[in-house]
Design goal:
Chains A, B: Belongs to the ROK (NagC/XylR) family. Chains A, B: GO terms for molecular function: ATP binding; fructokinase activity; metal ion binding. Chains A, B: It catalyses: D-fructose + ATP = D-fructose 6-phosphate + ADP + H(+). 2 copies of one chain form a homodimer. Chain A is α/β, with parallel strands linked by helices. In chain A, 34% of the residues lie in helices and 20% in strands. In chain A, a hairpin with a 3-residue loop joins strand 1 and strand 2. At the A-B interface, helix 6 of A face helix 6 of B.
Chain lengths: 289, 289
């Protein structure tokens, strides 16, 4: 028997098959188009492998309460065709004897980083990805952290930088964290795509201000042992030090944390945190049986 | 044997003795002066009672990591004489055979509300007090929520109301939540003490905007089953509905919650949440032995 992982993103679905020791047998990336075509391609990929368990880390927001009819569904998303799509139900119909583990892509990534990445040996961490959007996954006491919903820290409100008048890009909240600091805000403010902006551009200080502030708020609320940054933003190697400095300045000595160079770090599994977490979740479900 | 509770506030120490069924035998309030005088009065009050366990919910920030030398201490506080004072060590020296449970005043209050108040039957809640300062306690999976520190949500940053130019009162962060919305900001903005302001004053809408926004951020981060408001602000009965409306407006439909009238409520144990939580924590420690 094998285990599977599906990191379900709005652009692509990373799918991996591993043996019970977590050694990857085959991995692919499937473009996210319509649900029907995408799922058909996913089932084709996994067809040769009998699957004992599959971990799915999905873009969200998603329904996570097994008592509600929305469980296993993608909820409000701008991604055409995916609103209210029943991912878990569709997988279950195809794989009736396979254990399914269902969480957010960022929760899976946080779990991957905790077990095999930047937070190894810790019991808690928050993983924040900054790219097209901003999302955060939370692990606490070694397990995924979810409540009446999963964390949606990307949409929390932040204090504006005094010099910032940008309206923000979030269709729900305009100037929440994602609206002010995700990738599209870089191009929205400057007319230049993030990857083409020089390291010396002042906008990086502004983005570091918001991300550092969000990490202060996370620390004052969740007090995790470790904060991990991933996503497209980590393609800017100069940014981590700016974010660490912005965190220290805005925390203003209020809560003791480990030294900031240890406390806030980049992902240790670049672009693999999510799929690694999905496979780990599947592997553990199997070992519980 | 008896159990004790100490709700240690910056103004007064509420002390209570109860029997093992939680029936209160004697309760008092001792003014918070110097540590030596205050502790002497506390020991006098409890002297007639052999104490199996005492729950202490303290003003903070406090040291909660048993591995660190600051455990049991009050940390950075503006309260003269109490900085770095070793509360737990002093109690332990006086009561060597008594079990001590040590947490924040707001964590104790959250626990009291969960077990016997507004969140009865739930596994998780956040209790936020708005008075001289703003603090929040968190219960999750039926237990106190703490990480590398205890929650300090009162000092998280918030988005300013577009019409608000007030500098804020927080000595650390100026315009964090506490700086913009705690009691002193009411008088600071208007020159009138909060309790003397008419219900129709526009400042209540501003305060509701910030508190409602903080509850949005808490929901998107911790996703608790229930939010409970207490403290001096709840002496303004008109304010709860304003806060609920501000929450709904700023959440903008992003995360599903229970109906706001159920989700956000006032304390069910006015001015007793904290001491009740302290006694409950002591009672449970006893029953574990």
């Amino acid at each position: 028997m094998y285990i599977g992982g599906i990191e379900a993103g709005g652009t692509k679905m990373i799918c991996a098959v591993a043996d019970e020791s977590l050694a990857i047998v085959e991995q692919t990336a499937i473009p996210t188009t319509t649900p029907a075509d995408t799922l058909a391609a996913i089932f084709d990929f996994f067809a040769p492998y009998p699957l004992a368990a599959v971990g799915v880390g999905s873009f969200g927001p998603i329904g996570i309460d097994p008592q509600q009819s929305t469980y296993g569904h993608i909820l409000a998303t701008p991604k055409a065709g995916w609103q209210q799509f029943d991912v878990v139900g569709t997988l279950k119909a195809q794989w009736p004897d396979t254990e399914l583990i269902w969480t957010t892509d960022v929760n899976a990534a946080a779990y991957g980083e905790l077990r095999l990445g930047a937070a190894q040996g810790k019991d808690s961490c928050v993983y924040m990805t900054v790219g097209t959007g901003i999302g955060a996954g939370v692990v606490r006491d070694g397990a995924l952290f979810q409540g009446i919903g999963h964390p949606e820290i990307g949409h929390t409100f932040v204090k504006r930088h005094p010099d910032d008048t940008y309206a923000g890009t979030c269709p729900y909240h305009h100037d929440c964290l994602e609206g002010l600091a995700a990738g599209p805000s870089l191009e929205g403010r400057t007319g230049i795509k993030g990857q083409d902006l020089p390291d010396t551009h002042a906008i990086w200080d502004l983005q570091a201000y918001y991300i550092g502030q969000a990490l202060v708020n996370i620390t004052l609320t969740l007090a995790p042992e470790k904060l991990i940054l991933g996503g497209g933003v980590m393609n800017q190697p100069h940014l981590l030090a700016k974010i660490q400095a912005a965190f220290v300045e805005q925390m203003a000595g209020y809560m003791d944390t480990p030294p900031v160079e240890d406390y806030i770090s980049a992902w240790a599994l670049p672009n693999q945190s999510g799929i690694t977490g999905c496979l780990l979740l599947a592997q553990e479900r199997m070992s519980e049986k």
